[in-house]
Amino acid sequence: MKPAFRTALRMLGAGAIAAAGASAVHAQTVTIAMLNNPDMIELKKLSPAFEKANPGIKLNWVILEENVLRQRATTDITTNSGQFDVMMIGTYEAPQWGKRGWIVPMTNLPASYDLDDVVKTARDGLSYNGTLYALPFYVESSMTYYRKDLFAAKGLTMPEQPTYDQIKQFADKLTDKANGTYGICLRGKAGWGENMAYVTTVVNTFGGRWFDEKWHAQLTTPEWKKAVGFYVDLLKNDGPPGASSNGFNENLTLMSSGKCAMWIDATVAAGILYNKQQSQVADKIGFAAAPTEVTPNGSHWLWSWALAVPKSSKSQDAAKKFIEWATSKEYIEMVAKDEGWASVPSGTRTSTYQRPEYKAAAPFSDFVLKAITTADPNHPTAKPVPYTGVQFVGIPEFQSFGTVVGQSISGALAGQMSVDQALAAGNAAADRAVMQAGYQK
What we know:
By secondary structure, the protein is an alpha+beta fold. It folds into two domains: 25-140 and 304-361, Periplasmic binding protein-like II (D-Maltodextrin-Binding Protein, domain 2); 142-300 and 376-436, D-Maltodextrin-Binding Protein, domain 2 (3-Layer(aba) Sandwich). 45% of the residues lie in helices and 12% in strands. The chain contains 19 helices and ten strands. The strands form three sheets. Strands 2-1-3-10-6 form a five-stranded mixed β-sheet. A hairpin with a 2-residue loop joins β4 and β5. The chain is globular, with a radius of gyration of 24 Å. Residues 2-24 have low confidence and may be disordered.
């Protein structure tokens, strides 16, 4: 080989290495603020497929517990710090943050994404003034789970639409503390989206509301006292120890390991409870509607965990590309291959509910879709209210006072104060917040 030719080859090699190095340096990092629920952990597990298909994008995951995620995301968005390129937010934040111009509109999606396939309720909940601001990763309502074997052993029958009085009777009969089985598991962990998401549905169906039409807080009314008193007594008598520390994930673990006879919570848990790899009671789970009491209004919630791009992100196009992938039909197929059809993200795409494989693996599928499409955030209570939202009040201040109320009710559950004291403190906090913000007329 001639020396000049060798030199040319060396230079070509050096150039290729330099080019490779440059592309590695210029790979965009997309930092994702993500919830620590099982479906999201699965997303992280499957994400190397996205990086392989998009070698110019590197994903950096920040996986957080629910209350911490909300705190970090809100701080980042309000201070415009640009720490995250993708945020997991919900139907509470998306319209409000979109209205303020804090997040990027989800427009100009490719035809292959098939936006019309996304359930309309989900799209509407993540829009402001007809513009979509986040794409749904999964959508949920709430429902009742129960152990068919324990019901059968006691000769009990769960109705399709139970009342809370019936739930209490069942829980009393099914509690077997000596054998580590509790009649009911419910959220007790403080947080506007933890215990208050559930407690608000109880208050709604007991005939209560957060505010009257003139924005006066209603937490000391007979309806609130009856609803919260019922909830606290039920968990104290028939719930697991330390219930005031249990959120969605803790109760999911208790239910899937056979410790709970009943659990009222998010419909998204069905995919895990029916998965034999993840649940010890997969073949023993039955389901029914979320319980009602004096009114069906607001008895079951509507929520979407969705993905959004903050305006402060320096990698908006790459972030949007990731979100499109994570909420696509193709991603649902990947989960089905990896975890089975019962565990695919629920509530987002009509096409999922038309798949015979999904119907066969998920006996709850039609029920869940109906619960999602019948939840009504515009009429969440029996009496008229000036706000929207079933399990939250759709105003920015709710994050703050909703958490304060959640802490008080969690305190009552833990025996630190009475229900009346907890509600008096909560009422004062809610009134103060809306008064300072100028809502009260």
